[in-house]
Design a protein that fits this description.
522 residues; alpha/beta; Rossmann fold; Beta-Lactamase; Hypothetical protein af1432; 3 domains; 6-stranded mixed sheet; 5-stranded antiparallel sheet; 11% strand; DUF3369; CheY-like_superfamily; phosphoprotein; DUF3369 domain-containing protein
Length: 522
C-alpha cells in the first residue's frame, strides 16, 4: 500500500457531500462523543453522518470533558454508545467517567469504546481488565471502516442488552399491572388500567382506545367504548365506536382474523375471553414495535383476558348479592309503597354521608373503600325485621301502647338475626354483614338510651350510627300513619338538638354538610 493510499484510508473526510436529510419514523440510535479535541468531533460526525443500523439513523451528541459527558449520560439514559477519550481535563478523566457511569449511574447498557491518542497513559491490557469497557482503540488505528465496524457491533450488542432488559422490565410490569387489574371492580376502571399498562410496558405515553364486542360469534359489529386516552379521548364520550373512526375497520379486521394486527402506526390487540367477550385495543405508538414489544403485549393480552374473566365473575356475584338485598328489602316493604321510596332515599343519603365523613377524615380505620362501596346498598335492609311485625302494629295511626311498642321494637333484633345467619355464608364484609349491623343498631342511641341492647357511643357499629341519623331525618320529612311531615328547618333542628344524645355528633355534622350542599343546588 502506497503512502497516499494509506493516507486516504485514514482520512475520515473522504465523503463530505451534502446529501439531503432522510426522514425516519423510528427513533435514532444515540451516540455520544466525549473528547476535548473539536477536530475529533467534526471528523467523527462527518464519518458517521450517513450510517444506519436496521433502518435507524445515528444521532450524534458531543461533550468536551468528562464532566460534560457524565451530565449527558445522566440526563439521557437512552444513549447507546459512547466514544470516549481517556486524557481530557485530567490524564484519567475518561477512566473516571467509565467508573461513574457503571457505578454511580448504575448504567450497564451503554456501550463504551475508549479512544486514545496516548496509549501509554492507559495500557490496553490493564484498562480492559480494570474497567467495564467494551472496546479499546488507538485513534491512529480507528480508520473509517474500523470505526464503522466498531459502531455497528456496539449497537448490535446494545440492542441485545436492551431487549433482555425490556423483557425483564416488561414482564415485571405485566405481573404488577395484572395484579392491579384483578383488584378493579368496574369495566371503566378496567379500561383505564389496561390503557395505562400498555403505555408502561412500551415505556411511552400511548394514545389508545379500548373497546369490547359482546357475544363472540353472534355476528354483531357493535364495539362498545370502554376507555380512550390521548388524542382519542373524544371517543370515550360515546357508548359505541363510530364506524367512520379510523380504528373501527381495523378492529373488525382483527375480529375477523381473530388475531392482533401490527401495522405501524396503527396497532390493534385482539383479546378474546372465556366469557364470550372480545376486547380490542387500538393504539398508535410513536415508533414501530420491536419483536420484544409484540411478545410482551401478547403475554399481557392473555393476562388481560384472565383478569377480565375474573372481573366478570366478580361483577356477576356482586349483582347477585345486590339482587338478594333488594329482594329482602322488597319483602319487608311490600305492604307499604311509601316505605319503598323511603329505603331508596335512605340509601342515597347514607352513601353520601359516609363519603362526606371519609372526606372529613372521620373514623379513617372504619371508613375503608370497601365499607363505602357497601354501606349504601346495605342501608336498605335497616327495617327488614318489620316483615315479622303485624299490620295492626305497623300501620297504627297514632301512638303505640306499651305492648305494641315492645312488639314494634322487636323488628331490630329480628332483622339482625335474619341477616347475621345469611352473612355467615359470605367471607368478610358484605351487604348482609353490614346490613345486620344496621338492622340491629340503628335504633341504639349514642348516650345508651336506645334499643335493643342499650349500646352507647362507639359500641354501636358506625354503619348503624350513620343510618340512625338518615332514617330519622327522612321519617321526619315525610308523612307517616302517625304524623304529618316536618319542615326541613325543624327536621335539621331536631338532629342538632339530639346530637351527642341520640346521634353521633360527627355523623350529624357530616350529614348537615351533605344536606346543605343538596339544598343549595336546588
Amino acid at each position: 500500500m502506497s503512502k497516499e493510499q494509506a493516507h486516504e484510508e485514514d482520512d475520515w473526510l473522504i465523503d463530505d457531500s451534502a446529501d439531503p436529510p432522510v426522514l425516519h419514523c423510528e427513533m435514532p440510535w444515540r451516540l455520544l462523543i466525549v473528547d476535548d479535541e473539536p477536530d475529533v468531533h467534526r471528523v467523527t460526525q462527518l464519518a458517521l453522518r450517513d450510517v444506519e443500523y436496521k433502518g435507524r439513523r445515528l444521532e450524534l451528541l458531543s461533550a468536551y470533558s468528562g464532566e460534560e459527558g457524565f451530565a449527558l449520560l445522566r440526563d439521557q439514559p437512552d444513549i447507546a454508545l459512547t466514544l470516549l477519550d481517556v486524557v481530557m481535563e485530567t490524564e484519567d478523566a475518561g477512566l473516571r467517567l467509565v467508573h461513574r457511569v457503571r457505578e454511580e449511574l448504575g448504567n450497564p447498557l451503554v456501550r463504551i469504546v475508549l479512544r486514545t491518542g496516548q496509549p501509554g497513559q492507559a495500557p490496553e491490557q490493564e484498562v480492559i481488565v480494570a474497567y467495564d469497557i467494551n472496546d479499546y482503540k488507538a485513534k491512529t488505528e480507528l480508520t473509517l471502516q474500523k470505526l464503522y465496524t466498531t459502531v455497528i457491533s456496539s449497537l448490535r450488542a446494545y440492542e441485545s442488552l436492551v431487549a433482555i432488559e425490556r423483557s425483564r422490565q416488561g414482564l415485571s410490569k405485566i405481573l404488577e399491572g395484572s395484579a392491579n387489574l384483578y383488584q378493579m371492580h368496574s369495566l371503566r376502571e378496567f379500561a383505564s388500567g389496561v390503557l395505562a399498562q400498555i403505555g408502561a410496558i412500551l415505556d411511552v405515553g400511548t394514545h389508545g382506545i379500548l373497546c369490547v364486542r359482546r357475544g363472540a360469534g353472534s355476528g354483531s359489529v357493535a364495539l362498545q367504548v370502554l376507555g380512550a386516552t390521548g388524542s382519542f379521548a373524544e371517543a370515550a364520550r360515546h357508548d359505541e365506536l363510530d364506524s367512520a373512526h379510523p380504528a373501527y375497520a381495523l378492529m373488525l379486521q382483527a375480529v375477523e382474523r381473530q388475531q392482533s394486527l401490527y401495522a405501524y402506526p396503527n396497532e390493534v390487540l385482539y383479546i378474546p375471553t372465556q366469557t364470550r367477550h372480545e376486547f380490542l385495543l387500538y393504539f398508535t405508538p410513536p415508533w414501530p414495535l420491536t419483536e420484544v414489544d409484540k411478545d410482551l403485549l401478547e403475554v399481557f393480552c392473555s393476562r388481560i383476558a384472565s383478569a377480565f374473566d375474573n372481573l366478570h365473575h366478580h361483577l356477576q356475584m356482586t349483582r347477585a348479592q345486590e339482587a338478594t338485598v333488594v329482594a329482602l328489602a322488597d319483602l319487608a316493604e311490600y305492604r307499604d309503597s311509601d316505605t319503598g321510596e323511603h329505603v331508596l332515599r335512605v340509601e342515597r343519603w347514607t352513601a353520601r354521608t359516609a363519603q362526606r365523613m371519609a372526606e372529613r377524615g372521620d373514623y379513617p380505620e372504619q371508613l375503608t373503600p370497601r365499607f363505602l362501596e357497601l354501606i349504601g346498598m346495605a342501608s336498605i335492609l335497616h327495617d327488614v325485621g318489620k316483615v315479622a311485625t303485624p299490620d295492626l302494629v305497623l300501620f297504627k295511626p297514632g301512638v303505640h301502647d306499651a305492648e305494641q311498642r315492645e312488639v314494634m321494637r322487636r323488628h331490630a333484633s329480628i332483622g339482625a338475626a335474619i341477616l347475621q345467619r345469611s352473612a355467615r355464608m359470605v367471607e368478610g364484609q358484605s351487604y348482609l354483614s353490614i346490613g345486620a349491623e344496621i338492622a340491629g343498631g340503628h335504633h341504639e342511641h349514642f348516650d345508651g338510651n336506645g334499643y335493643p341492647q342499650g349500646l352507647r357511643g362507639e359500641e354501636i357499629p358506625l354503619s348503624a350510627r350513620i343510618v340512625a341519623v338518615v332514617d330519622v331525618f327522612d321519617a321526619l320529612m315525610h308523612r307517616r300513619p302517625y304524623k304529618e311531615p316536618w319542615s326541613l328547618a325543624d327536621s335539621l333542628d331536631y338532629l342538632r338538638a339530639r346530637s351527642g344524645k341520640q346521634f353521633d355528633p360527627r355523623v350529624v355534622d357530616a350529614f348537615l354538610e351533605v344536606v346543605e350542599q343538596e339544598y343549595a343546588q336546588e
